[in-house]
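Re-running Amino acid ABC transporter ATP-binding protein to confirm reproducibility after the cluster update. Everything else is unchanged from the original entry.
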Amino acid sequence: MALLTCRGLRKEFGGHPVLDRLDLTVAEHQVVALIGASGSGKSTLLRVVNLLEQLDDGTIELDGEDISDPRVDADRVRRRIGMVFQSYNLFPHLTVLENVTLAPRRVHRRARAEAETQARELLARVGLVDKADAYPDRLSGGQQQRVAIVRALANSPRLMLLDEVTSALDPELVGEVLALIRELKADGMTMVLATHEMGFAREVADRVCFLDGGRVVESGPPEQVLGDPTQPRTRQFLRRIIEAGRL
Ligand SMILES: Nc1ncnc2c1ncn2[C@@H]1O[C@H](COP(=O)(O)OP(=O)(O)OP(=O)(O)O)[C@@H](O)[C@H]1O
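Result of re-run:
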């Protein structure tokens, strides 16, 4: 059963199509990795799914509901989707605990004690409960990113969208964030992640989609798309990655 179905997505910036009749289906519990050169539309795809950008054409269904209908309440949709960005985007003036409990309290109207108990449980899971009262600037990049993921999980999302979540991290901090994503997969979380980490895409994704020119040019199991691609443009992209020593 498809959790997310994108059909014919089109998005233009300044008359230039960034998504060009893009189709993507994600089954429940599936992990889909989006790969592709810089500017191929990966972030834009995640942003339109989370209704942060308006579509020019196409439809997006989440759990069978057409969320691309302009009459849909975007806030209600975003409560079912957890989005994590490259640059963490934690609120600097709030503690870790306040960052994690903000949406559950304000949006989901949970009582403070209940939201804090859940937040501490989630923080304990990622080994950061001792940082609950710290402000983000006291945390390493890897710790901040794990808090950002916990903050998204606190809304009990149906779908997680992860946009280059390790790109801003020093190499020694990448592993701790990838370990957390591995755990989410083991828990059955449905995820769509844009990544430049081909090794990670190969390991964690059930399906890899190669984007080029705003379309999914090739899609399949990681070993096929990354190991034996059928499309010349995928081959060319991977050749460049190999030459750069990133595969
Ligand atoms: N708000 C915007 N206004 C104008 N152009 C935009 C906007 N957002 C994205 N673009 C353009 O759309 C294209 C696709 O960008 P996008 O960020 O989706 O690519 P990407 O595949 O995620 O790239 P990267 O791997 O570098 O993150 C780029 O040419 C970008 O400059």
